[in-house]
Specification:
Blueprint: E1 13-21, H1 39-48, E2 54-62, H2 66-76, E3 85-97, E4 105-112, H3 118-125, E5 130-134, E6 143-147, H4 150-162, H5 175-182, H6 187-196, H7 198-201, E7 205-210, H8 211-215, H9 224-232, E8 236-239, H10 244-256, E9 263-265, E10 286-290, H11 294-302, H12 304-307, E11 308-310, E12 324-329, E13 333-334, E14 344-345, E15 348-351, E16 356-360, H13 367-377, E17 393-397, E18 406-409, E19 419-421, H14 425-430, H15 433-443, H16 454-474, H17 481-502, H18 507-556, H19 569-600, H20 615-674, H21 681-691, E20 697-704, H22 706-714, H23 724-731, H24 736-743, H25 760-769, E21 775-783, E22 786-787, H26 793-807, E23 814-817, H27 825-839, E24 845-848, H28 852-857, E25 862-869, E26 872-878, H29 883-892, H30 896-906
Parallel strand pairs: 1-2, 2-3, 7-8, 8-9, 14-26, 16-24, 16-25, 19-23, 23-24
Antiparallel strand pairs: 1-10, 3-4, 4-7, 5-6, 10-11, 12-15, 12-17, 13-14, 17-18, 20-21, 21-22, 25-26
Helix pairs in contact: 4-5, 16-20, 16-25, 17-20, 18-19, 20-24, 29-30
Length: 911
C-alpha cells in the first residue's frame, strides 16, 4: 500500500487560524514601513512575529489576488516558517445596501484551497466576474462594464467622477478606490462563475460574509427572507470583535435569530501589530481543531461545535486530561513468545492525539493486538496472550496537558491508570450475572461484597471470647455457680481451721520446739554412734595388743620372761552397762517429744519444721479462694448480662448494618447519578446523557440464603447427632426476619435457648461472625422499570458501558477494543457516537472499530491504520480530514463512504 505524505500524524489539534488578513496590496490598508524597511518587509516581519499559536492565515484582498501571490513569493524564499498554511481569500461586495446612513455593502468572502493556484483563481474566477453600470441617461455615452481588472476599475472610478459636479470631487477618493467602492456583485453571479468552473473549484472553496454589515440589514416584512437567505447561503460568518465578550454577544444574536451561527473571529487586519486599532495583525481569537489544510478547515462545517472555539487560551487546556502521547518501538519486536507463525511490530514512532483515536484495519492487521499488547505491558490483566517483553518499547504519557510527557519502558509494567475494555469483555461480563453485579457494584463505588466491618468484628470477637471465658470459669453448662462457691467455701474453712490449729496456744510451742528437738536428737544419736565406735575400737585394741604380746612371750619364755596382757573389761562393761542405757534414755525422751508434735499434726504431710513459717502462705491461699469466690460471683453477674444484653446488641448491629449497606448502595447510586458537587452544569448534563434517559435505576435486594446457612452449620456438626431436618426443627429459622429475631432473642427459640446448648459455640460463630456468607445484597439494575437480566446481552452491555463511562467521565483514558462486538447496535447509532463526541473533551479515548459511523461521525481526532505486510505490523496515522486517511476509511470500513456522506448531509454541505 502506498502511503501518502501525512504531515500531522497526531491528527486534528487546536491551533489559531486568522482567516481575514489584508496585505499592503489591498486597496484599503494602513500598513507602514519601519526601521528603514519597506512596507512589505515590515509586514512580513510582523507576520513572522505572530504568537506561536497562530498557524494558519487567510490572505484577504479586495477583488484581486496580488497580495496572496506576493506572500507566496516570500514563503518560497524560506520566510514565514512559523505559518503552516496560507489560504487565498477574495473579498467582494454584494449589491445589497445595509440600510444605515453610510449605505454600507455586505462583504462577501471566498476562501479558496491553497491547492488552487493563484493563476487559476485569477483566470477562472476573477476574470469571470463582470458588471455593467449606466452612469448617464444617455446610455451610449456614460456606461461601464466588462471584466474586473485594476485598469477597468480605475475607468469605473473615472466615469463616476465625471458624472459629479467639479466642486464635489474633493470628497472622492482615487479612481481605483472609487471604482471598488461602487462595484457591487450579485450572489447569483458569483456562484454561477464558481459553478461554471466546477472542475477547478468543486469542494475547494468556502464562502463567508461579514457579520457586522449583515447585521445592519433591516428586519422588515420585505427583507426578512432576503436577510436570512444571504447568511444561510454561506458557510461561515466573519467578525472582528473588539473582545471575546462582544464576540459572544454577536454569536448569541445569530443563534437567537435562528440563522447560520458559524461565526469566526478574525483580525480583519489593515494595520501593523503595534497599532491601537483593533483591526491589526495578531488580534484573533479563533481556535480550530483540524489539520492545517483546507480540508481541515472544511471540518468546521461538519462539526462546528466541536472544531471551533473563540477564546484567548488553547482549548486543549480547558479540561484536564492525562493522555498517552506516544508509542515508540525502537526496533522490530516479535509479538509472541515461541509461536511458529509469529508477527512482528515494525520499528516506528506513533504519536497519539489526546482526543478520540480510532484504530482501523483489515482482519489480522494488528489493530487489536497493538492496544492489547500495550495494555498488558501497562499492568492490565491480560491473561490470554503469551506476549513477549521488550525494553525497546516505550510509552509516553502526560499527567497534565500542561506538563511534559513522561516516558515508560513497557516491559517495566508501569502501573499507569486507564480503563481498558478488551474485545468482547463486556459481553463476557454480562453473560455471568455474578460478575455483572460485582462490576456494577464496583463501578458505582461500593465495596466488593457486603463484609463484616472491622469494628463490629472486633466487638463480636470480644463478646464471644468473653462468653466462653466465663463459661469456662463457671462451668456454666455443667455446674452452677452456687455449687462452685460451696466448694470454695469448704476449702476456705479447711485452710482456716488448719491455720487456727497451727497457731493455737497449745500447739504453737510444739512447732516452735520441734526443730530444737530434732537438733538434740540428731546430736545425741551422733554421740551414741560415736561411743559405739569407740567401744569397738577399745575391744579391737585389746585383742590386737594381747595377740602381739602372746607372740612376744613365746620368745621370752626361753629366757623365763613374760609380759603381762592388757585387760579393759571394766571399761568396756561400764560403757555397755551404764553409758549406753543412759544415752538411749535421753534419745527416747527427745523422740517422744518429736512424736508428740507429729501426732498433733497427723494430717499434715509436709515438713513440720517449716509449718509455722508457712502460715502466711495458707492465709494467701484463703485470700485467693475468697477472690475466686468473688470472681465467680462477678462473672455470674457478667454472664447474665451477656445473655441478656451483649448478643442482643450484636443482633441489633447486624440488622442495622444489613440495612445500612443497602442504604449505602442506594446512596452511592444517587450520588453517582448526580455526579460531583464540583461538576459544571455542562458536566452534569453530560453525565445525565451518558446514563441515558431510559429511567436507568439501581436498587438493592436483600437475599437470605436459608439453604446455605443450614449447609454451613451442618458442615461443622457431627452428622451422627445432627441432620438438616433436626437443625431446622431446632432453630426454626426460615427467613431473614426469623434469623434477626433469633439473634436479637425476641423469638421463642433464640441464641440462649437450652435446646441449642450442644451447638451454641457453632451458632455464635456462624450467626455473629459469618452471617454475610448467607445474607446477600443483590444489585438490581432496571431500565424502564425492567430488570436488565431480562434484556439482551447487547442491551445489558450498553447499560454496563454507560455506567463505566459515567464512573470515569472526567479522568483516565479509556481504551476500548471493538465496542460494536459488545453493544446494542441501536445504542451505537443513536447514543454512543454522541457520547464519544462529548466525553472526548474530558478524557482521551482510544478505540478499535469496524464501525464507520463510530469512527467518522464521532469525529475522530486521529485515525490509525493498521497493516500487516508479510508478518510485519505497521501503523500509519493522521486526521479524519487527511485525504489518504479518508480514502482508507472508505476502503477498509464497510459503510465508510456512506458515513462521510451522512456526516456532510447533516450540515447540507454540497461543495
Amino acid at each position: 500500500m502506498e502511503i501518502s505524505n501525512i504531515d500531522n500524524t497526531r491528527g486534528s489539534e487546536w491551533r489559531k487560524w486568522d482567516l481575514h488578513i489584508h496585505t499592503p496590496e489591498s486597496l484599503f490598508h494602513n500598513y507602514q514601513s519601519k526601521n528603514n524597511d519597506n512596507v512589505w518587509e515590515t509586514y512580513i516581519k510582523d507576520l513572522e512575529s505572530l504568537p506561536v499559536e497562530i498557524k494558519v492565515l487567510g490572505i484577504n484582498d479586495y477583488l484581486f489576488i496580488d497580495g496572496y501571490k506576493k506572500i507566496l513569493e516570500y514563503k518560497s524564499q524560506g520566510r514565514l516558517q512559523n505559518i503552516d498554511l496560507i489560504l487565498p481569500v477574495i473579498e467582494l461586495r454584494l449589491a445589497k445596501f445595509c440600510g444605515n446612513k453610510q449605505f454600507k455593502r455586505i462583504n462577501f468572502h471566498i476562501i479558496f484551497s491553497n491547492e488552487i493556484s493563484a493563476d487559476i483563481i485569477q483566470s477562472q474566477f476573477l476574470n469571470g466576474l463582470s458588471a455593467k453600470y449606466k452612469l448617464d441617461p444617455n446610455w451610449n455615452q456614460q456606461t461601464w462594464g466588462g471584466v474586473i481588472t485594476k485598469e477597468n476599475l480605475e475607468n469605473l472610478g473615472k466615469a463616476i467622477k465625471a458624472t459629479v459636479p467639479q466642486s464635489e470631487l474633493q470628497n472622492y477618493d482615487s479612481d481605483i478606490k472609487e471604482g471598488f467602492n461602487n462595484l457591487n456583485l450579485e450572489t447569483e453571479q458569483i456562484f454561477e462563475v464558481l459553478q461554471n468552473a466546477e472542475q477547478y473549484f468543486s469542494g475547494r472553496y468556502l464562502t463567508c460574509i461579514g457579520k457586522t454589515e449583515w447585521d445592519s440589514l433591516n428586519w422588515n416584512d420585505n427583507s426578512i427572507a432576503e436577510k436570512k437567505n444571504i447568511i444561510n447561503s454561506v458557510d461561515i460568518v466573519f467578525t472582528a470583535a473588539e473582545n471575546i465578550e462582544n464576540f459572544n454577544k454577536a454569536k448569541n444574536k445569530l443563534i437567537e435569530s435562528n440563522v447560520n451561527s458559524l461565526l469566526l473571529d478574525c483580525s480583519d487586519a489593515h494595520n501593523n501589530s503595534d497599532s491601537t486599532n483593533k483591526d491589526k495583525i495578531g488580534n484573533c481569537n479563533t481556535w480550530i481543531k483540524a489539520d492545517t489544510t483546507f480540508d481541515g478547515l472544511k471540518q468546521i462545517i461538519f462539526e462546528p461545535e466541536e472544531r471551533v472555539r473563540i477564546q484567548e487560551t488553547n482549548p486543549a487546556f480547558d479540561f484536564e486530561k492525562s493522555p498517552f502521547t506516544e508509542i515508540l518501538i525502537n526496533e522490530n519486536i516479535e509479538v509472541f513468545v515461541d509461536e511458529q507463525d509469529n508477527v512482528t511490530f515494525e520499528k516506528c514512532t506513533l504519536p497519539l492525539n489526546n482526543g478520540l483515536v480510532s484504530i482501523i484495519g483489515g482482519r489480522g492487521t494488528g489493530k487489536s493486538m497493538l492496544i492489547d499488547y500495550i495494555s498488558a505491558g501497562l499492568s492490565q490483566n491480560i491473561k490470554k496472550k503469551n506476549y513477549t517483553k521488550s525494553d525497546k518499547i516505550f510509552i509516553k504519557r502526560q499527567t497534565s496537558l500542561k506538563d511534559e510527557a513522561t516516558s515508560f519502558v513497557l516491559s517495566d509494567n508501569p502501573n499507569v491508570p486507564f480503563m481498558y475494555i478488551s474485545q468482547s469483555e463486556i459481553k463476557g461480563i454480562v453473560e455471568k450475572p455474578e460478575d455483572f453485579t460485582k462490576n456494577i457494584r464496583e463501578t458505582i463505588g461500593v465495596i466488593d461484597n457486603y463484609i463484616v466491618s472491622r469494628d463490629y468484628k472486633g466487638k463480636a470477637d470480644r463478646y464471644i471470647n468473653e462468653y466462653f471465658g466465663i463459661v469456662k470459669i463457671l462451668d456454666a453448662d455443667n455446674t452452677n455457680s452456687s455449687q462452685k462457691k460451696a466448694i470454695i467455701d469448704k476449702e476456705i474453712k479447711r485452710y482456716n481451721d488448719f491455720i487456727a490449729n497451727i497457731t493455737s496456744q497449745e500447739n504453737k510451742p510444739k512447732l516452735e520446739n520441734y526443730q530444737k528437738y530434732l537438733n538434740i536428737l540428731a546430736s545425741r544419736k551422733a554421740f551414741y554412734e560415736k561411743l559405739q565406735t569407740q567401744k569397738i575400737a577399745i575391744e579391737q585394741f585389746q585383742n590386737d595388743t594381747n595377740n602381739y604380746l602372746q607372740q612376744l612371750n613365746e620368745t621370752l619364755s626361753k629366757v623365763n620372761l613374760t609380759i603381762p596382757l592388757i585387760d579393759n573389761t571394766a571399761t568396756i562393761n561400764y560403757i555397755s552397762q551404764t553409758v549406753f542405757p543412759k544415752i538411749q534414755q535421753l534419745i527416747n525422751t527427745v523422740e517422744s517429744e518429736i512424736q508428740n508434735t507429729k501426732n498433733t499434726f497427723a494430717g499434715y504431710t509436709g515438713d513440720l519444721a517449716t509449718l509455722l513459717n508457712d502460715v502466711a502462705q495458707y492465709q494467701n491461699k484463703v485470700t485467693e479462694l475468697q477472690n475466686q469466690k468473688k470472681n465467680i460471683e462477678s462473672n455470674g453477674t457478667a454472664f447474665a448480662t451477656i445473655k441478656q444484653n451483649y448478643f442482643k446488641e450484636l443482633g441489633a448491629e447486624i440488622e442495622n448494618s444489613i440495612n445500612a449497606y443497602k442504604t449505602e448502595i442506594e446512596n452511592k447510586w444517587s450520588k453517582f447519578k448526580s455526579g460531583s458537587e464540583n461538576y459544571t452544569e455542562e458536566q452534569k448534563k453530560l453525565l445525565s446523557d451518558i446514563l441515558g434517559t431510559d429511567n436507568l435505576n439501581v436498587s438493592v435486594e436483600i437475599i437470605f440464603d436459608k439453604e446455605k446457612m443450614y449447609n454451613l452449620l451442618m458442615s461443622k456438626l457431627d452428622g451422627r447427632s445432627w441432620n438438616t431436618e433436626k437443625l431446622e426443627r431446632t432453630l426454626n429459622i426460615n427467613s431473614l426476619e426469623d434469623y434477626l429475631n433469633f439473634i436479637k432473642q425476641t423469638a421463642d427459640t433464640n441464641t440462649f435457648s437450652d435446646a441449642i446448648n450442644p451447638i451454641r459455640s457453632y451458632i455464635l460463630d456462624m450467626f455473629f461472625r459469618k452471617y454475610n456468607e448467607f445474607i446477600i445484597h443483590n444489585i438490581v439494575v432496571t431500565s424502564q422499570n425492567k430488570n436488565i437480566t431480562k434484556l439482551s446481552h447487547g442491551q445489558q452491555g450498553t447499560i454496563y458501558l454507560r455506567l463505566k463511562l459515567a464512573a470515569n467521565l472526567f479522568s483516565k483514558t479509556i481504551i476500548y477494543d471493538q465496542p460494536e462486538d459488545d453493544l446494542d447496535n441501536e445504542f451505537i447509532m443513536s447514543d454512543l457516537v454522541s457520547i464519544f463526541r462529548k466525553i472526548k473533551k474530558y478524557r482521551q479515548i482510544i478505540i478499535v472499530s469496524h464501525n464507520a459511523n463510530l469512527v467518522v461521525n464521532a469525529d475522530s481526532e486521529q485515525v490509525i491504520i493498521a497493516r500487516n505486510e508479510d508478518g510485519f505490523l505497521k501503523y500509519v496515522s493522521g486526521s479524519l480530514e487527511n485525504i489518504f486517511i479518508n480514502e482508507q476509511i472508505c476502503k477498509i470500513l464497510e459503510g465508510g463512504k456512506s458515513a462521510f456522506l451522512k456526516r456532510e448531509k447533516k450540515y447540507g454541505f454540497k461543495k
